[in-house]
Amino acid sequence: MNRAAPASLSLLLALAACATPVVAPPPVVRIAPPPPGLDRILGASVATVTALLGAASLDRTEGPARQLQFVRPPCVLDVFFYPGPNNGPLAVRTAAARRYDGSRIDPATCLTLLAPPVVPAATLTPAPRR
After folding, report:
1. Peptide bond into 34 cis (omega under 30)
2. CA–CA dist 73, 63 (Å, integer)
3. CA pair distance 51, 58, nearest whole angstrom
4. SS3 of 26, please?
């Protein structure tokens, strides 16, 4: 019988007992970036959004998050609020939108349809007279 095999096995077992277990790092949770064009409401409070869009058709809370849904012609806009840093006040983090038939519509487009931007009167120029 080969004497080297049991010695090698003993050495391997001794080294394995001393090894530090490898622990995988926790998974990184990535939040999708908000759709472009939502600058008017990103970071806004619940009060600011309801002042802009009116009363929500649905107000739902799940854990620390809050969702306000605005069902208006021609689209449905879901606005999602999350606590700020250090469990600060709720602020808009992102939004999603769809048409009544369920088809997709860009959230920024839906927001613009529900609350068109206000153009200051000073920037308006009268049409030329003919």
Report:
1. no
2. 30
3. 15
4. coil
Per-residue pLDDT of the chain (130 residues; tens, 9 = 90+): 555 566 666 665 665 655 566 677 777 766 666 556 799 999 999 999 999 999 999 999 999 999 999 999 999 999 999 998 888 999 999 999 999 999 999 999 999 999 987 766 555 556 666 6
pLDDT at residue 11, as a whole number: 62
SS3 21: coil
Which one-letter DSSP state was computed for residue 127? P
**CA 50 from centre of chain:** 19
Whole-angstrom Cα distance, residue 15 to residue 9?
10
Length of the chain: 130
Q: Which of 99, 63, 100, 57 is nearest to 79 (CA)?
A: 57
pTM: 0.65
Q: Which residues does 98 contact at the CB level (< 8 Å), separation at least 6?
A: 75, 76, 104, 105
- Which residues, including other chains, have CB under 8 Å from residue 89's CB and lie 6 or more apart? 45, 83
Neighbours of 49 (CB within 10 A): 23
